[in-house]
Amino acid sequence: MFVQVTAAASASAADAGSAEFYNESVLPILEARCFECHGPDSKLKGGLFLGNRDGILTGGESGPAVDPDAPEDSLFLDAINYGSYEMPPDGKLPDNEIEALTAWVKAGASIPEDSELERPELDHTNPATLVTEETKNYWAFRPVANPNVPPVKNSTWPVTPIDNFILNKLESATLSPSSPAAKQQLIRRAYYDLTGLPPTIDDITSFVNDKSDRAFEKVIDRLLDSPQYGERWGRHWLDLVRFAESNSYERDGTKPFIWRYRDYVIKSFNEDKPYTQFIREQIAGDEFEPPTPDSIVATGYYRLGIWDDEPVSQKQALYDDLDDILLTTSQVFLGLTMNCARCHDHKIDPIPQKDYYSFLAFFSGFKRYGVRGHDSVKNNSIGPIAVNQDDRKRNDSRQAMDRELGEQDRKINQVNRRLNELMTPPEKEDFKAVEVRVDIARKYSGKGLSKKLVSEYATAVQRRKEILDTRPPEVAQALIIKEVGKTPRDTFILVRGNANVEGAEVEPAFPSVLSPPEPVIKTPTMTDSSGRRTALANWIASEKNQLTARVMVNRIWQHHFGRGIVNSSNNFGNIGDKPTHPELLDWLSTRFMQSGWKLKSMHKLIMLSNTYQMSSQASEKELAADPANNLYWRFNMRRLSSEELRDSVHAVNGRLNLKMGGPSIYPVIPQEVFAGQSRPGAGWGNSSEEERARRAVYIFIKRSLVEPLMADFDFADVDSTCPVRFVTTQPTQALSLLNSEFMNRQAAIFAEFLKKEAGPDSAKQVALGLRRATQRQPTKPEIDRGVGLINSLKADGVPEDIATKYYCLTLFNLNEFLYLD
Amino acid sequence: MTESNFCGRTRREFLWQTGAGFTGTALAGMFSEDGFLDNQAVAADGQTAWTNPLAPKKPHHDPQATSVIFLYMYGGPSHIDTFDYKPKMKGMDNKTIDVKTFGRGGHRNQGRIVEPRWNFKQYGECGKWVSDLFPHKAEMVDDIAFLHSMTADSPIHGSAMLMMNSGKILSGSPCLGSWTTYGLGSENQNLPGFVVMLDPRGGPISGAKNWSCGYMPASYQATIMRAQGTPILNLAPPAGMTSETQQKLLATLDQYNKEHQKARQDNTELAARIANYELAFRMQTAAPEATDISQETAATQEMYGLNGEKSGTFGKQCLLARRLVERGVRFVQIYSGGNHNDANWDAHGDLQHNHNLHAAETDKPIAGLLKDLKQRGLLKNTLIVWGGEFGRQPTAEYAKGTGRDHNSYGFTMWMAGGGIKGGTSVGTTDELGSKAVENRYHVKNLHATILNQLGFDPNKLSYFYDGLEQRLVGVEGAEPIKQIIA
Hints:
Number of strands of chain A: 6
Distance between the termini of chain B: 43 Å
CATH class of the largest domain in chain B: Alpha Beta
CATH superfamily of the largest domain in chain B: Alkaline Phosphatase, subunit A
Number of domains of chain B: 2
Distance between the termini of chain A: 66 Å
CATH architecture of the largest domain in chain B: 3-Layer(aba) Sandwich
Mean pLDDT of chain B: 89
Largest sheet of chain B: 9 strands, mixed
Strand content of chain B: 15-25%
Largest sheet of chain A: 2 strands, antiparallel
Low-confidence stretches of chain A: 1-10
Mean pLDDT of chain A: 94
Number of strands of chain B: 20
Radius of gyration of chain B: 23 Å
Helix content of chain A: 40-55%
Number of helices of chain A: 36
Low-confidence stretches of chain B: 1-46
Oligomer: heterodimer
Structural class of chain B: alpha/beta
Number of helices of chain B: 9
Number of domains of chain A: 6
Strand order of the largest sheet of chain A: 1-2
Shape of chain A: globular
CATH topology of the largest domain in chain B: Alkaline Phosphatase, subunit A
Structural class of chain A: mainly alpha
Shape of chain B: globular
Radius of gyration of chain A: 34 Å
């Protein structure tokens, strides 16, 4: 990197403008120090080309490098002097080089014509990324169609139009659908699918014995009505919105009251709330006029993400938080990766950077979760679930009185502590009665306690009683969004995503490729916010929106079949997967909207199809032709999710506690896992064994401490939206199911249960155990195998109870326990 | 659309994929090099053939290093008191000077100098100046490349540790060890591919976030290994269960599972799960064997400082690290320091007390590790990385005392083995060590160097997630530090 600088920095202004000076004293420096990124063979970082005068005057994304009218203030000089920019980035130039360049710039930064270099041609602008009539015609950006149900040759197979769409494609590929699933398999599939829990033996028997045409429909209706439905399907939503109850980073502090959001989601699914209402509540529920308890709690949506309470730069952190919200909102509700356009135009989809910031402008009133520490969180993010003026008044008055109560208590306690030193033992005994305390204090007036203090004490005790007698009941609090006021911050395009480099100002607007309407923004009268989010919510929750219904219907399909019609369910853009059945997707989207955006009607529609009720058995021809089952010639097997696994263990051993809602539970975490925390055990609470047997959806989600069984079985990563969970197979899963304290404890409970229910006979215990674990009638050899294990262990001297426990442990490890056909 | 230009990268065939049940994203992982795609299946959908995500894979080019041991000095050791010699600070103690600093105490423009508290001497053929804190490591300078001009994006532990481990100050990205096992798989399936060992005083700030696999599947998550007791969580059968009992249980399980599999032969995931029980069983033997240091000679144990009052714990962890890489474990990270305050290198109060303690705990073990790897011929394939999330300021944090606040403007890390040029020093900080001035390098360059030594083009090793081809070195990319590559 050694640079020969011949001309000294003492060059006069006249010299510095000469061709000779440029060629001998400037160009060598530029070549050695700058051209790697800004030269004729570079990729022109930041869009800046320093090889000719036009490049220098035009500059890059941050503006002109040299301002001919005020060369001293040039960005170029600022950068080489390590001002707001630091160039070159790997170290400041030697002084003599800075002097030479400064002289040259001050003399006007002239470049002799012969030395002008050609700006490199960069191969950019993929036509797919421009907003044009052609890109607007991309399948996902077209209005939802209402396609005709296609004809099929085998007209006996379809029972719903869904089947026509599926069979039509199968027939084109000369493939046949699989046979129907056995009733036992079907009911097991349906139970897990809708509730995440296994059917009981009675459930199965009555279904198998019900020979009516409506037998399965009755099962579906019952499951959709059961509150466990919301716990299963609500959890899918919680994955999407990266629900967690702590903030990550050093303190990984708990998010107060956020469990109310989880309960809100479960309740919304159980109520079959129209999806459009669910959208509006989460995005702008605080701006409802009037709000409802649901719509207030729903805005906890904005508080679910990570939060750095000690960021390097508050400004950058604000934009990181906004990006997190924009990313989640655009991917979850719209299936668009708008987040890719934060630093530059989207490289794959027609989303200009301007659209990113115009979309961001809807959130520009957003107050960060907190600034630092608990009070700031309280001020920025916690509020009462107050639906009217009375509630708000009551809340204000209650909070004011609680604050005063605290002050009075401090005064009282100060005197109490002093009295404790003064009082005789019998007085201390008397002092336990609150009503005599002032009298006792008076005895010490002037004798250890000042008269003034005693008089204040009497007043404080009196005031305390008044407060307790008169304060209004508490208004429940929730973690919610708050805005900076009716006027949001101005929003600018940030050059290269840098919070400190503001470009053009933008106004709220929807992504242009969707040919959207202008947002209609009305300032709310009842809240101190801008009303922008209401405009956004209304546009998303609209039948005219090309993406909303498609994206949601695809998610419903995905969770029924284990894959979406569009496999990349958070990304409907160019880099996402193409829909396997685009017409079916549109047909379902139309039905969804026609149903009033009700999920339960969609579940039923899908589950009543023959497509859903097929067996998972492979057939040779179809397997060879379509191994990935893109055409749905059979149903896909699947493994239980981490929650289903844990809940099934409790369901099978009889301990499952179906209590719903409320603050989260804390399973026992092994000390070895706590050892990874800087303060082992910190931030993890305790729950009773009965509480720990509640459904896994109620487990406290701490970002830096994921419950190990959940983590081993592919629980969602909670820092970002999770559209599809992984399903890994790894030895730590086997170790955990075989050796963990949790599984061994549950196996012991299962063994006790079997003994109680089946009596002392091992064969009966084994038979019942198998029935409960697999939800089918076991065969004789299967029972014999279990009895064989127990007997063999007993012969080794293992006590019978323990041998049965080990058998129960075996049951929890069965592939059949963990996999659904 | 044209198949190019994805954040500046070529987009080849996208395996962003397929099968049901399985993760839209899992197969999305890809390398831009052809041929790598075959190895990417992490599928478990009952459709796509299951392949072991940890099966050994070939990187982009021939690797210099096949394993990494990252000696993480949690809290941030002071560079000017260890390896970054600042003779001009001599005699400047307590002088108030103008210097820009940024630490947990915020931005300051002035401070009171705390002169380095240890003497420096020259060592080795390269004549490296090393402070008296590290008399043992000093003997190994000819094998070490020092990076004196490191910079990071944050001077705050939480975000700075995430940066050092995952390349980003935002929570949620996979860490270096996950990238390594994602890229290379593991040589020994009976042991975890990515191991973390913690300080007995506690984990680091943010705990498991530091060894998280982020948006990658759990196959690439770290396994915590303990130097005492059962090395891995759930490795030992429950109390009272003998090996014979367990084998009988596993045999019965196997019979049930194979019967269940008969009608489902096409689902390779079921077979994988059956095989995993054998693997788990073997791991129950392999891991205790790997961690049984009674197989080591007294001389070896002594070399690692196992008998030292202070160095015993870290020494044992270093020795375990050697035994693990010997057995094909890809990535081992050991934390020196845990918990808070002086239980790690975070010397805000009494600099001497703090650094004397942590140096005494780690100096001999680290020197022993280098020597031992070298004498066994393992150093050439094992990349050693030493450092913390940042360095420390030249000035005092408080009106009194020697405590130094955090410094991410300039600090020192070093690397050795795995194709690194020993006896070199790269980059400089200013005369006070307040900031890097020459040949400045970012944490991303360090990561790029590690990946390069492992055989990767750091700008091509990528994983598709959130609509972006994510890389450890970020979308903008970063170059390896060529001056230290042999």
